[in-house]
TrEMBL record:
<dbReference type="InterPro" id="IPR032750">
    <property type="entry name" value="TnsD_C"/>
</dbReference>
<dbReference type="InterPro" id="IPR009492">
    <property type="entry name" value="TniQ"/>
</dbReference>
<dbReference type="Pfam" id="PF06527">
    <property type="entry name" value="TniQ"/>
</dbReference>
<feature type="domain" description="Transposon Tn7 transposition protein TnsD C-terminal">
    <location>
        <begin position="320"/>
        <end position="401"/>
    </location>
</feature>
<feature type="domain" description="Transposon Tn7 transposition protein TnsD C-terminal">
    <location>
        <begin position="223"/>
        <end position="302"/>
    </location>
</feature>
<protein>
    <submittedName>
        <fullName>TnsD family transposase</fullName>
    </submittedName>
</protein>
<feature type="domain" description="TniQ">
    <location>
        <begin position="8"/>
        <end position="162"/>
    </location>
</feature>
<dbReference type="Pfam" id="PF15978">
    <property type="entry name" value="TnsD"/>
</dbReference>
Amino acid sequence: MILLVAHFPSLYPDELLYSGIARYHQMSGNTSQKQTVKELFGDRLVCATVDLPSHLRYLSERLGSVFKVNDLIMKHTLYPYYRAFIPQVKARKIYELMSEGASQGEVHALLGIPASLIKLPSYLKYCRVCYEEDFSTYYEPYWHRSHQVPGVCICPIHKEALIESTVSYTTREKKFEFTSLVSLEKDTAINLCVQPDFLNQYAMVAERSYELLQSVNLDTIYSSISKTDLHEKEYLTGLGRIRFLKLIQDFNAYYSQEFLKHLQCAVDDQCETWLHKMIRGNDLIFHPLRHILLADFMGKNLILGSTTGIEEMEMNQGKWQENNRHERTSARRSRTPFHDWKKRDMVTLTEVREVTKRIKSQKLKPQRISLATVSKNLNKTKVPFVLEKCLHKLPKTKRFLEKEIETTEQFQIRRLELAAARIAKEETKIEGWRLLKAAGLNSPLRESVVEKFKNLILY
Ligand SMILES: [Zn+2]
């Protein structure tokens, strides 16, 4: 068996495995996509699945196990998003199918995706700012998985409306085609229509979906609405009945109708809807998007954000019935979340320092030190929240980052210095064109960068 490890590209933070395969195809020089699939998966019938691909153990072996199956699944597919709200047995079954191989559509069917009213997006999406940042950091753009989550219309990091590409999300038509973002003709893409009035609501969905995707080390995320929650919000009558009319009215006032309709989550107070079913807490599986909407409306967290919370979360897992049984305990838990931000600031600072040091030590393929890069590389067990969102509560970390974050110019200067040091090891004279090439820079450059460039070639 030929090991492809030397040829397969490293996967970037938040990159879809689909995207890595597309980049591999481009670099391989293969004329047909089927050839690429054959190289990576052997004779298996593997389709170009965007969200929940399978046969990953085989791929991992072909790549000399440099990419562990668990990393591929947890960091480069949408599995962490979907597994958050399903019973553990089912989650394990899906994980197994993704690892060992599944017939086409099997994973999706198990999750009830084809039957769901919430349809998968039609096309792959990307963020204009991520595109540019990735280009300057990695010298190429790539498909982010957080942009491909159903209901996500803006970038969770930059809060920009995502751009819909012409690359199909489902494998119905082009079963074996992996298309890279760089090969996309930008002019053909269109902006997604996100109404400015609902920007905050779309941002909430994007951020919470991102949190779910990032929750690599958490076994269990569970947001269920207990009777205690309903009681606290005055949605229970004295006899313990649910006051649906008030609840539905409040829900519809909290979100706008258009927004809910766009997400295929509209709620009608005349008939039994998904919200009725979710509140009643029967055994049905609900789409994560609906959990997100309900949790935000009820003012609940999806992820109990703390390292000590992980154990609690494991204990907290269960269905609504169990939750009812333990309602006193869970009520106490949800009222006293771990929110010692002073302590968090210290832990985060250590982590951020570590990540910054690591980024700086990458001499061959330098990355710009940006808030997004640092955040993406943090150990999520130690920093189990979105750094960008919580920076105002972390003064020490914030001060440190303010000093460390590089502007494009500063990053270009650092690249010049690194390239010059590399060339100086081999040659006595640093030639201008060679230095620019080694640093991956093109003119025209900003004044301060030109200044540095001149200094370096003089030397
Ligand atoms: Zn972005």
